[in-house]
Amino acid sequence: MLDDYLIRIGLAHRPSPSPEGLAELQRAHRMAIGFENFDVLLGRPIALDLAAIWAKLGSARGGYCFEHNALFGAMLDELGLPNRPLLARVWLGLDGPGDLAAAPARTHTLRLVQVGTESWLADAGFGGSYVPPLPLVDGAEATTPDGARHRLVRRAAPDDPLGEWLIERMGPAGATDGRTLGSDGWAAQYSFGLAAVAPIDLELGSWWASSRPDTRFTLACRASIVLPDGFAALNGTRLSVHAAGRSEARDLTRAEDFRAVLADLFRIALSPDEVARLRLF
């Protein structure tokens, strides 16, 4: 599958099993395969076995984090980069870790990757913004081509239920999926711990995100994709694009324009019937 996957994400070579190779693979993945939740809104179950994920993401479709990072993790294994899943609480648009009673569920997954003797975080499936690979080191930082800085902070003891680690972002709000960042400074994206995650934990998180009536994925259409120097997002019929340091937004008012934007910008193919079933127009 690895050779077909590399063709799918537009890489003509196998990246090296190094931090540079990890970053190259993740960025190519995120620029080629859109983040989206259309199957949720179309009433289709989200299957997390690798064959089902590849049948979907290997064609002109995308998916959400549980699909993206399962595929990404399997490809890292084939490249000789051992990895395992982690679960996270998403704080983007919220106040950040604080009151446990108000904490969001662990509905995001990312990968903990072993690169030589170092542990790295990699995430090919965060739809809210582009999070680059980061070494598992308190204070590690990276800057992405959209102009944002990212920082990893060790915020608590390993057994803290809100997560031992926190990924923060500081940068243009237009290069996110539209959720407010709360301030012009560092804003929390998600927190996580390093505890082992069982397959049933991933199934449960995916089921909750795709079936609970008030989650982001059951309330409206969501799509995003990384651009060479920016980020594009779709929330319902609202399209926002950040590129070359500028942010623009507009409303899509016709089904044919919606389909064209999905295909041309987000690399997602939906039929006219599927778009009609979304009841957006």
Break the fold down into its secondary structure elements and pairings:
Layout: H1 2-8, H2 19-32, E1 35-36, H3 38-41, H4 50-57, H5 65-78, E2 83-90, E3 108-115, E4 118-122, E5 134-135, E6 141-143, E7 149-154, E8 165-170, E9 187-192, H6 199-211, H7 216-219, E10 222-227, E11 230-235, E12 238-243, E13 246-251, H8 255-264, H9 272-277
Antiparallel strand pairs: 1-10, 2-3, 2-9, 3-4, 4-5, 6-7, 7-8, 8-9, 10-11, 11-12, 12-13
Helix pairs in contact: 4-5
Give a written overview of the molecule.
By secondary structure, this protein is an alpha+beta fold. It has a single domain, classed as 2-Layer Sandwich (Arylamine N-acetyltransferase fold). 28% of the residues lie in helices and 25% in strands. The chain contains 9 helices and 13 strands. The protein has an 8-stranded antiparallel beta sheet with strand order 5-4-3-2-9-8-7-6. A hairpin with a 2-residue loop joins strand 3 and strand 4. It is globular. The mean pLDDT is 96.
CATH architecture: 2-Layer Sandwich
Structural class: alpha+beta
- Low-confidence stretches are none
Distance N to C terminus: 38 Å
Query: With helices defined by DSSP (H or I, 4 residues minimum), what is the helix count?
Result: 9
Q: Overall pLDDT, averaged?
A: 96
The coarse overall form would be globular
Q: Kindly state the percentage of residues in helix.
A: 25-40%
Q: Give the tally of β-strands.
A: 13
Keywords: Transferase
InterPro entries: Arylamine_N-AcTrfase (IPR001447), Papain-like_cys_pep_sf (IPR038765)
Organism: Novosphingobium aerophilum
GO molecular function: acetyltransferase activity
